[in-house]
UniProtKB/TrEMBL annotation:
Keywords: Lyase, Metal-binding, Zinc. GO terms for molecular function: fructose-bisphosphate aldolase activity; zinc ion binding. PANTHER family: D-TAGATOSE-1,6-BISPHOSPHATE ALDOLASE, D-TAGATOSE-1,6-BISPHOSPHATE ALDOLASE SUBUNIT GATY-RELATED. This is Fructose-bisphosphate aldolase. The lineage of its organism: Bacteria, Pseudomonadati, Thermodesulfobacteriota, Desulfobulbia, Desulfobulbales. Zn(2+) 1 binds at H96, H191, H227. It comes from the Bacteria.
Length: 325
């Protein structure tokens, strides 16, 4: 495959996005996508709310889309921004990269940012692999996210049954050893649409803000990333169940907790499940109400609209990234 630098696609790395987010006390949204409709909804939502955006794909999402096809989608997303005469910056990020080879292959295919997730390995191995990716990425002006601590949950190829919180005392050494540009931490979020099963009247447990604050105290101004940040919006769960689905008793991270994290050192918030739920809810409704419908535009179109509205809601009401560009 021909090598492409992300600047040829009109993309940017995350450096300036994060420094502005840190000063402005908000978080940049990182939305996962797997297809054209999701990508269009994300970009449209971010253009309409004047929010910077990180488009992210996991390794398996990249395989699903096609490694050769993906740069064209990213370029198309940038064209949408230009056509709308919008100034929002767009980054293309590898989510949960699990090897040097995958990170390198993405960098050579136009990604402006990569995550190397070696958080399941020992501290030393995690630092070693992260450092290796940083050296290659920085030579190409690509930013790197690594992870310390383990999130529970299931997400594409990442599966962990139990979480372990990030240990703040390890952070400084890890940053020194690796030179990464941002760090994902574990403070009580988890991947997937089944984060908490609550009894009536029960609230999800609060995030470990003491850990986040201790990390901020040790490395002030360093960009922190929050994975597993979907809220599992009740209206979409209700809509899915009303129209034939079965997703009972599930809850995610409350919006006010995400707001609080975004005003602290969290500069990037990862959202995947909420986007999947929004589209599924809209599609289920169409199929239930119009069982004879078979034109994909008639169900993917409304699904795209629902996702666009959700993106605008997150940017304006939760992350504070709206109106920044
Ligand atoms: P959610 O499953 O909470 O959307 O988390 C997504 C994520 O962290 C992607 O890396």
């Amino acid at each position: 495959m021909k090598k492409i630098h992300y600047s040829e696609l009109g993309l940017v790395n995350t450096k300036e996005m994060f420094s502005r987010a840190m000063t402005g006390k908000y978080a940049v949204p990182a939305y996962n996508f797997n297809n054209m409709e999701q990508l269009q909804a994300i970009i449209t939502g971010c253009i309409r709310s004047n929010s910077p955006v990180i488009l992210q794909v996991s390794g398996s999402a990249r395989n699903y889309i096609g490694a050769g096809f993906l740069p064209h989608l990213a370029a198309a997303a940038r064209s949408m921004v230009e056509e709308a005469r919008s100034a929002i910056p767009v980054a293309l990020h590898l989510d949960h990269g699990n090897s040097f080879e995958l990170a390198k292959s993405c960098i050579e295919a136009g990604f402006s940012s990569v995550m190397i997730d070696a958080s399941h390995h020992s501290f030393e191995e995690n630092a070693k692999l992260s450092r290796e990716v940083v050296e290659y990425a920085h030579d190409n002006d690509v930013t790197v996210e690594a992870e310390l601590g383990v999130l529970a949950g299931i997400e594409d190829e990442v599966v962990a049954e139990k979480s372990s919180y990030t240990r703040p005392e390890e952070v400084e050494k890890f940053l020194e050893m690796t030179g990464v540009d941002s760090l994902a931490i574990s403070i009580g979020t988890s991947h997937g649409a089944h984060k908490f099963k609550l009894k009536p009247g029960e609230e999800p447990p609060p995030l470990k803000f003491d850990i986040l604050e201790e990390i901020e105290r040790r490395v002030p101004g360093f960009p922190i990333v929050l994975h597993g940040a979907s809220s599992v919006m009740a209206k979409h769960i209700e809509q899915i169940n009303r129209f034939g689905g079965k997703m009972e008793n599930t809850a995610g991270i409350p919006e006010e907790q995400l707001r609080r994290a975004a005003a602290l050192a969290v500069c990037k918030v990862n959202i995947d499940s909420d986007g999947r739920l929004a589209m599924t809810a809209a599609i289920r409704q169409i199929f239930a109400e119009k069982p004879s419908e078979f034109d994909p535009r008639k169900y993917l179109g409304p699904a795209r609209d629902e996702l666009t509205e959700m993106i605008i809601h997150k940017n304006t009401q939760v992350l504070g990234s709206a109106g920044r560009y």
